[in-house]
Amino acid sequence: MIRSKQQRRLELFAYAVMIIVAVMILYPFLLLFMSSLTDEVTLSLNGYSVIPKKFSLKAYVYIWDARDTIFRAYAVTICVTIVGTLLNVLISALAAYPLSLQRLPGKSVLSFIFLFTMLFNGGMVSTYMTYTTIFHIKNTYLALLVPGLLFSPVNCIIIRTYFRTSVPEELYDAAKIDGASEWKTFFHVALPMSVPIFVTIGIFAGLAYWNDWFNGMLYVTDRTKFSIQQVLNIMVSNIQYLSQFAGTGRFVYGDVPSVSVRMAIAFVAFLPILCLYPFLQKYFRSGIALGAVKG
Questions:
Q1: pTM flag (> 0.70)
Q2: CA dist., res. 93 & res. 90, Å (int)
Q3: 3-state SS, residue 214
Q4: 181-199 pLDDT, tens per residue?
Q5: Exposed, middle or buried by CB within 10 Å (0-12, 13-18, 19+), for 107?
Q6: What Å distances lie between residue 99 and 93, 112, 174, 269, CA to CA?
Q7: Which domains are seen in the chain, by residue range?
Q8: Phi first, then psi: what are they for 294, rounded to 5°?
């Protein structure tokens, strides 16, 4: 196929725009990483730079000194993220599948209940009292899992729309003719044909679990059960405290790499997700595209 000059120019223009957008997206990550490798004094005097005038690994040495705590927190976060994401997607799918069926009795009432929970909730105090006095999840791993396990109504509605628009109704009818129950129809027809939307919702749920530190702050005081975000947040607070009082005579701490450590902590926090995302990008793109076209 012979392309015209106008088509080639449009392609070159599109490539140029995409390159500029990619650079704009990657530049903050590169600046963050290089700032974590910059000497603290140089960073204070010259500011952030992609090419530091003086390299230093003090920030990562500071983090490495707490490697036992960090590795344990990584293990806790990875396990909670995997289990929580799978259960979150499964619960959302189980709630979305009946709502996608035309013949479900009381569907309008259930849809209203889901919509109502998107607008109103019980509040922080009642939620805390419920989880600590009724479910007794304080200082347990369930404290990191259960608050985010209750499915999001938004995710449920997205999956419901996907079931309704992307899975042909004729397949459900064929499964019923073959004698399949609703459970078999769900697991053998709906689930296999909805992998893109499940991966998309799974990424949202997984990021929420991975970045969650608030539930840990509320419900977990046992250091052996801290998540990585909670540990890193505590390290940032300690660094701020040490930086504030270093050199005031209250205590002697030496050179406190406050800014570079914050950059290193941020880099350590999102690095696993950054490495995992390329493997899920195909499904994520498919789910977003199908939702945009048919939703």
A1: yes
A2: 5
A3: helix
A4: 888 888 888 888 888 888 8
A5: middle
A6: 10, 11, 19, 37
A7: 67-294 (1.10.3720.10)
A8: -105, -20
